Please model this.
Amino acid sequence: MPGLSKTRLSQLLDAALPVFAVAAALAVGAVMLLFLGVSPLEAYGALWDGAFGNANALAETLVKATPLLLVGLGICIAFRGDVINIGGEGQMVVGAILAILLGLNPPEWPGWMVITAALLAGFLGGAIWGAIPGFLKAYFGVNEILSTIMMNAIAVQLMNFLLRGPMIDPAQLEVASKIPQTARLADVFRLPRLVPTRLHLGAAIAVVLAVLVYILLWRTTMGYRIRAVGQNPHASRYAGINVKKNVVLALLLSGAFAGLAGAIQIYGVNYRMITDGSATGFTGSAGFNGIVAALFGQLHPLGTIPASVFFGALLVGANKMQRMVQVPSALITALNGLVVVFVVSSEVWRRRRQRRRLSAAVSAPEAADARETQATPMDRETSS
Amino acid sequence: MDPIIILQAGVATGTVLLFATIGEILTERSGVLNLGVEGMMLIGAMSAFSTAVSTGNPWLGLLVAMLAAGLLSQVHAFISIHLQADQVVSGLALTFLGTGISLVLGEGLSKAGTISLLPRFSIPLLSQTPLLGPIFFTEQSVMVYLGYLLTPLVWYYINRTRPGLHLRAVGEHPAAADSLGISVYRLRYFYVFIGGVFAGLAGGTISLAISPGWFS
Model:
């Protein structure tokens, strides 16, 4: 059947869209590099080498990808439920604070139990920080975009306060510099490393969780409800689904994964918390970059795995690029932005083809009507 | 520290947010949410400073900042208006893009040395007012006073003029505005641009008046 193969082809095209988006972003990036007087081939070569060149580089890439994947998993859940979570930064910070509190005041447990409990504490911290905007949205109609951003600011100041005051490393109190950081975690409370590099168990945990999130979203009633509410809250309400509860749940789970990312960052990489006054100092913007990774992975938990590795590679490779060809590593931030610009833009073609597939299924005049009604200017605003 | 000095500095720093807010209000009233304000402000701050360094004229720097940020905003305008893609995501992309570009192009600017800043002065009579005078009208940057003027003007524009009515119509009920012959797309592009221009003004105000300089 030629019709069917055409549908198949257009679905394949959909799946390949992110690849085109990256190609386009790299092309624009190449133009920028030429303007800076650098050979793009040399720069991208250094980028590749820095990200995948040897075992250490690859391990660093995966270490960077881990928080992106975890935050991205949360983003998949939130966006599938049609709530937007820009609070990943704050949720990571709160998760990390709770996790390290446990590790610095450990109960009389064996190491692995403390680590497990700490990761759960991180999960819980992020869940609380995500549930608050969720609750505000569900019951008071507060725009979650704004409230999650504001919750970031609150979390950062909470961290700055705690790390300068109650949680400061006792050793720092004795010296004049008073660097705002906590004490170091004891060796037994660190996530084990997988191979003789900095790669730690957290990366494996993140991949396992990606599969679990996939199962949650597409193979359980809970996930079905979240997605149903995301696609059509009115229909869901008539079907007897508690819309408010699921809005809270989507943001809560989304925050929880970001909180876990924060906890794993502490127990797998930093072993202590230190602040430079901003959230970025601790998170490395993973709370934002995770959104990018999830979108790049088409809001699919399994797609988010390669997407996180890709962005992790960009971040790690950028340092090598800076050393080899003297391009500021901030270029990668711009490149990130470009990738998102093209990914978002390419959605249009996907939608257009989807509509064409639909109109092929429905009778012709009806489809034309549908297209007409969709052509009115967007009004995606929330009530203001 | 003297509370008067803190409040005085607060007014100056707040002016930056004020400009950015005014711009975002105009954009949002037209029905577009632009979360890329941060990126546009950084582009503004960087291009204002670099223009002021190379030409020695801070006013020209301010102008370039407004244009540069306005241009960047058109990326978001195209994605959210023409392609009707997700505005939140596109705004986020703009933040990344603006931050990255300004850091790359601003590399080395931090060692550029001193520049002539926008003037500061006191308002003759008002600065004599007890309490309010020293906080609001003494030795503030010209941009602070511009902020005082712009705020009521923009309010008047939005609520009491015909173009302002069109702006609100496009934002609140695009279909109605469209049937009255107002071009929804054109106005939205325009106000996203204006939002960018104000964000650029805010960025330029940072690097040329409030906390002069550029730090990568």
Observations:
- The radius of gyration of chain A is 22 Å.
- The longest helix of chain A spans residues 2-35.
- Chain A touches chain B at residues 32, 36, 84, 86, 145, 288, 291-292, 295, 327-328, 330-338, 340-341, 344-345, 347-348, 376-381, 384 (CB under 8 Å).
- Confidence is low (pLDDT under 50) at residues 367-384 of chain A.
